[in-house]
Specification:
Blueprint (H helix, E strand, L loop, with lengths): L1 E5 L3 H9 L3 E5 L2 H5 L6 H11 L4 E4 L5 H12 L5 E6 L2 H11 L5 E6 L2 H10 L3 E4 L1 H6 L4 H14 L5 E4 L5 H10 L3 E4 L1 H8 L2 H17 L3
Parallel strand pairs: 1-2, 1-8, 2-3, 3-4, 4-5, 5-6, 6-7, 7-8
The structure holds SN-glycerol-3-phosphate (G3P).
SN-glycerol-3-phosphate binds next to helix 7.
Amino acid sequence: MRIFLDTANIDQIRQAAKLGIVSGVTTNPSLVSKEATADYETMTKTICSIVSGSVSVEVLAEDTESMIKEARIKASWAPNVTIKIPATAAGLEAISALSKENIEINMTLCFSLNQALLGALAGATYVSPFVGRLDDVGHDGMQLVKEIVDVFKHYQLSTQVIAASIRHPLHCVAAAKAGAHIATVPYNVLMQMINHPLTDVGISRFLADWRKVSPQ
Ligand code: G3P
């Protein structure tokens, strides 16, 4: 399973990119609006200069024609831009058109197996089931990830599954076990994936023991 970073915060992206384990970034209008400068174009170009993999940028238009126009403009911002389009009828029509132009699409706001299947048939490169938001309303978000992965495998669909709306490290463990191709994780969750108290204790003990035989 690959790891994408789910943020529009440039400092966080720079820090995470240094680790060499992040292969993409996903943004959305809410994440962009949290940053001091909500200039989506400048922000996207900066992110694309830091991360060479897929950088998802969401369209804001709601009808097909406007989505297509907006997607073409946003896709021209950098070669590694992936366009995020929601799982609606207008969105599916736009995905079908844009995928024929070789524009990478991440179908977002996916909450059902049917939506995921239709996104794949429309030619989306990725579909993003929102795990945390399903959990929030009492549905098992990770079960949906697993079902999508199984169905895509069964029908040999090449669309990749991004486990999105990840809220904590156990979501990452479950996404990996469910066979998600990618988990897109907030920066704090990435740090939680790394940290383990026993690693810290182990380092302290090793250093303390070493100092006993090798006084400075
Ligand atoms: O990747 C989608 C993500 O940004 C949504 O997360 O926590 O707002 O449900 P959340």
